[in-house]
Amino acid sequence: MHLINKILILPFVCAFLNAESLLKTNNTKKANILNPNTKQASIDSSLENSTKNGEKISNKSNLNFSKCAEFYTKTSKQFIDLKNENTINAIHIGDGKYLAYSKHFFNNKNIIKYDEFMGLYLFKDKILNQKYDFRVINKSIQAVAINKNSITKGKILKSQGSLKNLAVFSNIIEPNSIISDICYQAYGISTGSDRFIDKSYIDLFLKNKNSKEYSYIGIEAKDSKNGVVISKINPFITNLLQIGDILLSINGKKINSVDDFFNLESNLEINKIAYIDIKRGNKILKIPLIATKREIDFSVQDSFLQYFGIVLDNNLNIISDNKSERFKPNDKILRVNQMQVSTINELDSALAKIANEGAESFSILLNRNDFEFFITIPIDSVELI
Question: Which of 125, 153, 185, 241 is the most exposed place for a label (fewest CB within 10 A)?
Fold first, then answer.
């Protein structure tokens, strides 16, 4: 009877010891994952995978990132908008400098500089012992988006291609979240939706001494099997280009993709002549264009009215009028010279028709607080090179 009890008890003792050993192993792995000073803090750390039907099933989705949230809290500071008392969290990036993203203009005495088109702000405050280090995205990796309110798990799908073509996360994330796979390491800062600004463009922002202004030459382009071709031309800027022209270079810098073109177009000297090399049929032509100041946010579709300093959203609501000041925020465009318009493409088609007819002015029908009226814009002063 005594021997039988030993035989019966032994399996339970072994099971208990195995469970205890497994618990210790898991706790050790969890401690390593949550420690921001170890490589195991990475989502890409070598965790054990189980196998089902010959495929590996990762346990990464069950990781606990509470320590990374704690690191975010300790390494960020809240700043207050002096105008409306809204707040924004900015992360410490070293030397008492704090980085944040805001879609709306932010007013604070600690701002060193800002980029109104990218939405990046740099603040100055006390130096902290810890800081975030930004790293280059060199592959598609598992990551999280962390902010003061939430942690969103996902994957970095694509790095940033241009000022307009942002990096992509696999899930919807809150604006101003930090994209990270190690508590102290970051790959970018989110702009909302599933997009974020990555290290390469954050570095450009940090290198600029002052708040950045971007240029505009009135061209839209697309990739094709023949190269980067012009798909849209602002008729108020030039009449020397044609739809379908192949873009070769700007000021001698080669264009290999639409992203190349947009980055070059956006960083020209404002009010200076830029030279565009194009291929039209079998001819290579050098076209001079005057680069004007960009008025429209990168997230909004370009409009030909940008030339006149008028900034619209995608629903044809006025955001600002930076030249004539006759348009007011929230004015809505209804018609152009009696042509009804409801999208930016329809608006631009109407404006192109007016420009091609050689008109000296055009009228815009607006709705302002349920009152409709016309504003006439002269175009006889537009100088085409």
Answer: 125
Is 42 inside a domain boundary? Answer: no
Residue after which a domain boundary falls, among 293, 324, 344: 293
Indicate whether 90 and 200 sit together in one domain.
yes
In sequence order, which residues have a C-beta less than 8 Å from that of residue 262 and are 6 or more positions away?
Answer: 162, 163, 164, 165, 221
User: Which residue stretches of the chain are H helix?
Assistant: 2-34, 66-74, 199-207, 258-265, 344-356
pLDDT digits (tens, 9 = 90+) for 346-381: 999 999 999 989 899 999 999 999 999 999 999 864
User: pTM for this structure?
Assistant: 0.74
Judge if 183 and 113 occupy the same domain: yes
Q: What span, in angstroms and rounded, lies between the C-alpha atoms of 139 and 156?
A: 8
Q: Is residue 11 part of a domain?
A: no
pLDDT in the model for residue 210? 76
**149, 174 contact by CB (below 8 A):** yes
For residues 91 and 79, is the Cβ–Cβ distance under 8 A?
no
Tell me if 100 sits within 8 A of 188, measured CB to CB: no
Is pLDDT larger for residue 94 or for residue 139?
Answer: 94
State whether 208 and 221 are in the same domain. no
Number of domains comprising the chain? 3
Contact 128, 99 (CB under 8 A): no
Domain of 87, in residue numbers: 65-212
**Tens of pLDDT along 218-236?**
999 999 999 999 999 999 9
We report the CATH number of the domain holding residue 367 as 2.30.42.10
Residue pLDDT, tens place only, 98-116: 999 998 889 999 999 999 8
Does 83 lie in the same domain as 207?
A: yes
Q: Are 40 and 32 in contact (CB under 8 A)?
A: yes
State which of 32-41, 105-114, 290-299 shows the largest mean pLDDT: 105-114
